[in-house]
Fold each of these.
Amino acid sequence: MEDIIEVTNLYKTFEIPRGDDIEVLKGITLKVKPGEFVAIMGPSGSGKSTLLNILSSIEDITMGTVLIDGEDLSTVNLVETRRHKSSIIYQDFNLLDYLTALENVMFPMMLTGISEKKAKEKAQELLERVQLAHRSEHIPDDLSGGEKQRVAIARALANDPKILLADEPTGNLDTQTGDTIIELFREIITEKKITVIIVTHDIQVAKQTDRILILREGTLHREDEILEEL
Ligand code: ADP
Ligand code: MG
């Protein structure tokens, strides 16, 4: 099967106007198959968020190539890629506070120009899928952390992405609630055949994925490579 993500020799340097450049990624190579569930771990500041932001085309590339579903991120229309190939969710949910759960899920669909009626129907289906239909009229302040993350997941699925990227999605949740989020990812992978990459600090969370990669000193390592060194 074709790889859905193919990163070759990726470098990322942040240029600091009045200081030394920060070389964060120094030759990342990563291949991910459709339907895989991958965890990325690594020390704080090692570049995990930077890597996810590059995969979701929020951050640009210094050197190297990133193919997402066969498309080279340096040549395609980034906005289109961002909308349709991948979605990203965060530790602090990033919901719009003044919109209801339903409106939050409708939001990315409205940006693509589909009718409000269609967006509403699909948002309702997605909220049902994450078992939050009964909370659709609530604003984020009236939801628990786990519920907010499920709204964020429903919103991330709104435009049928092929890849779901999650930056410490369980970081603000208790263990049990976190586990339900990981189970939800697994169900979505099975149902929709999408690919999920999560960044996590929690080894118990990482162990529930298909494979664990560790980002250290700018490069990615397989978990067993790191263990061999110890
Ligand atoms: P992690 O998610 O693994 O904790 P990050 O990807 O957030 O790490 O950050 C990696 C390094 O890059 C850190 O040293 C951070 O300060 C730096 N960095 C991240 N984003 C920027 C930016 N926009 N400008 C400058 N430096 C940045
Ligand atoms: Mg981070």
Note: Residues 175-192 form the longest helix (18 residues).
Amino acid sequence: MNEHYPFVNPPLPYAYDALEPFIDKKTMELHHDRHLQTYVNNLNNTLKDYPQLHSSTLEQLLYNADKLPTAIQKSVKNNGGGVYNHIFFFNGLSNSDTRSQAGSLYTAIIGQFGSVDRFYEEFKKQALSVFGSGYAWLVLDENGILKIVTSANQDTPIVKNECPIATIDVWEHAYYLKHYNDRSAYIDDWFRVANWERANKLYEKCLSDNLR
Ligand code: MN
């Protein structure tokens, strides 16, 4: 994806049907080609008349959203967040089983939550607790503590200086075609296709960024 305006919708790093049977092809097509594309289009439309923002990265726009011209603050938060969150979510899925490749993140999860099962139980509880639309995240906070947090709508944890490691999109559009209203089954399936190798790389990057 472009670092700055005009933002583009990057292709998925795997085939639309790569996550079957856990996440179905049609959901991935609609989610990527329509939902994410709409956020990209809306973000570009919002920024069109603000050339002074055309060299800002997505992270800079989100991080400084409250300092942007009032007329576009909300749209940048919603649509910029939609772009950021979706790309992060899609890049965090994998068609191969990466559960044994979590490296030092695995050790840190055991240290923080006691066991993978306890971690998952807590992650699932938080993901189920999102009222309406939003996300659940595994993040590293400023003090180097692993935390599970939730965000509403298209808010992102980066604005709270929480470094994202893994996320699940729990908007209904992410699962309704296959799982109907059963968010719990979708979360179980997400856990199976979450890319724990990538999550570990992000965890190590978050740790080293914290030391700067
Ligand atoms: Mn979504």
Note: Strands lie at 134-140, 146-152, 163-169.
Amino acid sequence: MDYSQLVQGAETLAEEIIALRRDFHRHPELGFQEHRTAGIVASEMEYLDLEVRSGIAETGVVALMVGEKPDPTVLLRFDMDALPVQEETGTPYASIHDGVMHACGHDGHTAIGIGVAKLLHNHLSDLPGRVKFVFLPAEEGLGGAERMVAEGVLENPKPDYSLSMHLRNDKPLGWIGITSGPAMAGAERFKIEIRGEGGHGAAPHKTIDPVLAAAQITNALQSIVSRNVDPRESAVVSVTQFQAGDAFNVIPSHATLQGTIRTFTPEVRELILARVEEVSSGVATAMGVDAHVELTRLTPPVVNDRELAAKLHSLAESMFPEATISSNEITMGSEDMAFFMEGIPSAYLFVGSSDTSRSLDAPHHNPRFDFDEGALSMATSLMAASEWSLLEAS
Ligand code: NI
């Protein structure tokens, strides 16, 4: 395959991909409610004669493209959900649904996925393997990926490789991130229930104050990253919610803390989870309260296969000689793509999409989020070529 053909092919499709993206943008749907979006995806895939399965994890769509050879199989994942955000872009393609907006670029991802299928379909007779397109519902913290995996998306056929991508509005169009190794952190949620004994605000000696105890626990938790984690590793422990009390003159009987933990390795993760328990119960004992810690795993870390990342890096360099390509872009954000990557050689790519000169640089999840649509054709050819190079190499 001469990959410049795919770059040109994606440019030819650009108008169509932009029109799809704007249509999805006008009609955003929240997680597990992407009925309209999934319907369009399914009919586009059926039009290309792909084997389509809909209604996986409510609104997920899987479509299989079969080339010349049965093996290998590359999984390509694109997310479809919008966010509960009131749009303020004022564009002609702004959301027509109050309080719902594509503020993360998943409208673009869905359009890119359809673009990749159209682009590869133009070369179907040469396609050296199979492509499993996965259109994911509910990426935004609602567990869409875990449900799709539980419903068998990684079987029949089992992918040999997994690829996905995200637009990045903190990077300009022409920037590509193909990280070698860990790229995005694994995430957990913690909740700490603190029980004391309430009473009059003027008689603290007759109470066991859970507010003070929760404050001490909040402070002490900050010692974990600074004093327990090896300084050469990265980790986050953030207390983000502190709830207690209903009146200024009443010491309440309980307080609740919630927050998130971000890590890249199983060792650091285990260490932090153990220390959150120890610190909370140790401080609770000292303060005379009870502390109960509840930990919920959200996603494992996104870890790119180093060999595969190096290969895709040189591919991207040859396709886009003008592009800036980073191999060490790491974020503490998390992504449920991790569930499609566990045990499978994989890569998660970042594609820069901002244009500061046109004010297309609002951050993701912001009501004014919008991006340079030039990123759509770039990502389409990049994903198609990445996929092709993996099929071809095997
Ligand atoms: Ni996103």
Note: Residues 180 and 307 are 8 Å apart (CA to CA).
